[in-house]
Amino acid sequence: MLESLDPGAIRRWCTGTLSALRRSQREIDALNVFPVADSDTGTNLVLTLQAAADAVPAEGSSREVWTAMARGALLGARGNSGMILSQLLAGAAAVLPADRPVRGRALATALAAAVDAGYSAVAQPVEGTVLSVAGAAARAAAEADTDALATVSAAALGAARLALESTPAQLAAMGLPGVVDAGGRGLVVMLDVLDTVVRGEAVDLTSPEPVSLPAVVAGVQRGWEIQYLLASRESDVPGLSKRLGEIGDSVVVASVDSSLWSVHVHADDIGAALEAGLELGRPYRVVVSPLMTVPGAPSPSARAIVAVVPGAGLAAVFAAAGAVPVEVVPGSVPTARPLLDAIERMGADEVVLLPNSGAYAAVAEEASVGADATVSVLHTRSVVQGIAALAVADRARSFRDDVVAMAEAAAATRWAEIVVADEAGLTMAGACRVGDVLGLVDGDVATIGASVPDVLANVLDRLLNAGGELVTVVLGAAAAPGLEDGMRAHLRAHWPFCEVHVLDGGQPRSVVVVGVE
User: Fold this and answer.
1) 93 Cβ partners below 8 Å, 6+ apart?
2) Arithmetic mean of pLDDT over the chain
3) Which stretches within 427-481 are classed as H helix?
4) Once rounded to an integer, what is the mean pLDDT over residues 284-301?
5) What's the CA angle centered on 306, arms 303 and 312, to 5 degrees?
6) pLDDT computed for residue 209 by the predictor
7) Which of 153, 354, 400, 413 sits CB 3.0–4.6 Å from 388 for a disulfide?
8) β-strand 303-309 against 324-327: which pairing, if any?
9) pLDDT of 232 strictly over 90
10) What's this model's pTM, rounded to 2 decimal places?
11) Neighbour-count burial of 100, counting CB atoms closer than 10 A to its CB (0-12 exposed, 13-18 middle, 19+ buried)
């Protein structure tokens, strides 16, 4: 019997909870009816706890270990349930004592803080869910009023079980099937393992259930689940909940630290959800999944388009055009896993995959081979080629004809990008130094200059000299405020018959990307 939660006990609780959730994964998935009956709560809890377990350090105090576990969960949270669970862990971690053992009363205080954090993160809390179960556990822990750790953990577990039994009636009152709440069931699993650890008993670490991605239920699509991390120092980030509430529902905005937030919303408009974040900072790690309900009904989403994009601004652009964006960090090692995950989340029979970079061509092919769906990879080498392909996509056509039309549009788009050299070297246009502005046409350095406006004018002239009527310009994060005006003036003076579209892509590496059709 433990007198206090030491760092080793917290580690055993974390790994034991992960194993227990894996064993209960299918059971909890089957219970999932709120907020959407998409049968993924168990899977989302497993993936969230896996992220938490991966973040647990080998050394540190009880508070440090718990805090690391909570941060890992916040950064890796999946779904509505994972977001709330991660916020419960973070709320508890914030009040754990740093200078004394975590005994019964300290655990009760942590559980109360967890509930406060959970309710504050959810825009519209609903009773009969994991929050109700957490609240009952916290009240029972406080009423125990003792430093005896085992007494407090047992009281919390017993109250949570009773509260879980009440959730069917609470959910039925909202017109939902009378089953226990899936998220609440997951929390009871966590408290059960905690009680086992506190009683000094061995934790079952067997994991017969493999971790799998959320299964897409065959049925009618009811919008999208959109998640991202938001880097922002704005004081009004908590106000993002209100803005997202106007766009969709199931809104959770959770603080990771003073400049990082985890955001979740169910909405019909992916672009609007991302733009709400862009108004306050830099969204990244964007994950978009379809919400499917009414099992047994035919799925209207037989075809999907998945696109690799370097930045949240471009993610919003591609989402608004009907694609599912997979955000990547330029310069990182390409892997097929994020692409395969996106394909599997969509549950479509036919998928068009746009790598939008030569660096992702090989892994896109790898993902296409590993997917269950029929996947066609269009070897788009730039985001502007991907935008051109999307512009002609038509799901009314046969898959083959649609792929051919998209491929032709991409191939007809000549492209260029402006970057600033971060190292000296020898290029096809001559030697360059650190800080030089490089103009790349179709991937090769064609011109070197001292200023972005001059190099941009040069590459525009090179592209338009070969013909073209439509110019698409994607501004990056480093584009100066007056760059667009100068570019438009140059085009009016030298190429007055061109149609110009300017997009705010926010990509981190390329100052500007240009496409000409």
Assistant:
1) 63, 66, 67, 69, 70, 110
2) 85
3) 452-465
4) 59
5) 140
6) 45
7) 413
8) parallel
9) no
10) 0.61
11) exposed
User: Residue 390 and residue 405: Cα distance in Å, rounded?
Assistant: 10
pLDDT at 221: 52
Smallest Cα–Cα separation from 216: which of 38, 44, 80, 33?
Answer: 38
Token pair in block for residue 29 = 């998935």
User: Tokens 């508890």, residue?
Assistant: 92
Half-sphere exposure at residue 245, Cβ-oriented, CA atoms within 13 angstroms: 12
Alpha helices in 398-480 (DSSP H): 399-411, 452-465
Structure tokens at 437: 């502005």
User: Virtual CA dihedral for 463, 466, 472, 476, nearest 10 degrees?
Assistant: -10
Burial of 419 (0-12, 13-18, 19+ CB in 10 A): buried
Asked if residue 477 lies in contact with residue 441, where contact means CB atoms within 8 angstroms, the answer is no
Amino acid found at 420: V
Structure tokens at 461: 């002239």
Compute how many other C-beta atoms are within 10 angstroms of the C-beta atom of residue 173.
11
DSSP 8-class letter at 269 = -
**Percent of the chain predicted with pLDDT > 90:** 40
- Mean local confidence (pLDDT), 10-29: 90
**Cβ partners under 8 Å of residue 462, min gap 6:** 416, 439, 441, 446, 447
Helices (H), 261-398: 270-278, 312-320, 337-346, 361-370, 383-391
Closest CA to 228 of 283, 268, 276, 280: 283
Q: 3-class SS at 475?
A: strand
342-373 burial, b if ≥16 CB within 10 A, otherwise e?
bbbbbbbebbbbbbbbebbbebbbbbbeebeb
Q: Which amino acid is at 347?
A: G
pLDDT at 215: 41
Q: Which residue in the block uniquely carries the two structure tokens 């509505």? A: 80
* Spatial separation of the C-alpha atoms in residues 505 and 76, rounded to whole Å: 25
401-to-12, 378, 388, 396 alpha-carbon distances in Å: 55, 13, 16, 10
Q: Report the SS3 class of residue 287.
A: strand
